[in-house]
């Protein structure tokens, strides 16, 4: 399979690789310790985000923050974040399309009318809660 222009890196994307300071990258042991530290910090942030998913709080935001920490050092995390940014931009562009907005508005209005009808039928059948 040949590479298409859709998978080719964009000019505005930063090059993949370590963002560690030059002095850290020059010393192999120090760079290994740096990578281990980045991995541990990123893992703690991602784990915190996973814990926050069922709880009230910004779970997904924290998870992507942890991925951002990992992306400072690991190429695989940089690729995941680039893919996520492209998908979010694509979804945003499609959501702002006037036809899609009109369709979503119609679906929302129909859903609200159905929900109001269900609530009205319930109140008509069983009445309002009384003590």
Please explain how this structure is put together.
With 131 residues, this protein is an all-alpha fold. 71% of the residues lie in helices and 0% in strands. It has helices at residues 22-26, 28-52, 59-71, 75-95, 98-126. The longest helix is centred in the C-terminal third of the chain and has 29 residues, at 98-126. It starts with 21 loop residues before the first helix and ends in a 5-residue tail after the last helix. Residues 1-6 have low confidence and may be disordered.
Descriptive tags:
single chain; 131 residues; mainly alpha; 5 helices; disordered N terminus
Write the layout of secondary structure elements.
Blueprint lengths: L21 H5 L1 H25 L6 H13 L3 H21 L2 H29 L5
What's this, in brief?
The chain is an all-alpha fold and 131 residues long. It has helices at residues 22-26, 28-52, 59-71, 75-95, 98-126.
